[in-house]
Specification:
Elements (H helix, E strand, L loop, with lengths): L2 H8 L6 H13 L6 H13 L4 E5 L5 H9 L5 E6 L2 H13 L7 E5 L2 H4 L8 E6 L6 H11 E10 L15 H15 L3 E6 L5 E6 L6
Parallel strand pairs: 1-2, 1-4, 2-3, 4-5
Antiparallel strand pairs: 5-7, 6-7
Helix pairs in contact: 2-5, 3-4
Pfam families: Methyltransf_3 (PF01596)
GO molecular function: O-methyltransferase activity; S-adenosylmethionine-dependent methyltransferase activity
GO biological process, one term: methylation
Length: about 210
């Protein structure tokens, strides 16, 4: 794909001034938010799933959270987890500016692997992971427990700056993402897809259990 075509696809769904302001906050505090193509894909997934309950690992300043909330049901609740409470405060500003009621965004300050085990089994329609790349495999295990049958797990940075596709790249984060891809693609209970949007979005549907 030529760069111009990729850029056209990435910008196909435009961001508004609220998302632009959230991106400006992210830059100020050193957070790297999802790309607009990933955001549009997340909103699409949340909408197709008619999502009422979503978990997000990595709140940032609310860019991904707002995309998700805009795709969810009007009564849907986003549970978003981040180790940085200050980032979550900025995310709340983003949600407020977007007119999202406070009861629709539940922020939990803490590490993903400390918080996820406390959440309810089989309750969630979508789990979005954008936390520590080295913990992606552990996030997947938690997501399989948290998702209802038919729910979707998604991972940002699945191409990791073009490093995952290059077998000579063996740093810890790249290896972790590469191994996650193999795990997801071979999992008997998942239907996977790797989308070349942003820095790569790996998504997979949790299959319904067979009858009988």
């Amino acid at each position: 794909m030529k760069p111009a075509s990729w850029a056209h696809a990435e910008q196909f769904v435009a961001e508004d001034e609220i998302l632009e302001a959230a991106r400006a906050r992210a830059e100020e505090v050193g957070v790297v938010p999802i790309g607009s193509g990933v955001g549009a894909a997340l909103r699409f997934l949340a909408s197709v799933l008619d999502a009422r309950a979503v978990v997000e690992i990595g709140t940032g300043t609310g860019v991904s959270g707002l995309w998700l909330l805009r795709g969810m049901r009007s009564d849907g609740v986003l549970t978003t987890v981040d180790i940085e409470a200050e980032h979550q405060r900025l995310a709340k500003e983003t949600f407020t500016e977007a007119g999202i009621s406070a009861n629709r965004a539940r922020t939990i300050a803490g590490a993903g692997l400390d918080v996820l085990p406390r959440l309810t089994d089989g309750h969630y329609d979508l789990v979005f992971c954008d936390g520590d790349k080295r913990e992606y495999s552990a996030y997947l295990k938690e997501a399989m427990r948290l998702l209802r049958p038919g729910g979707v797990v998604a991972f940002d940075n699945a191409l990791w700056h073009d490093r995952v596709a290059d077998p000579s790249q063996r740093d810890e984060q790249t290896v972790a993402i590469r191994e996650l891809g193999r795990e997801v693609s071979s999992h008997e209970s998942l239907v996977p897809v790797l989308l070349p949007v942003g820095d790569g979005l790996l998504a997979a549907k949790k299959e319904w259990a067979p009858e009988g």
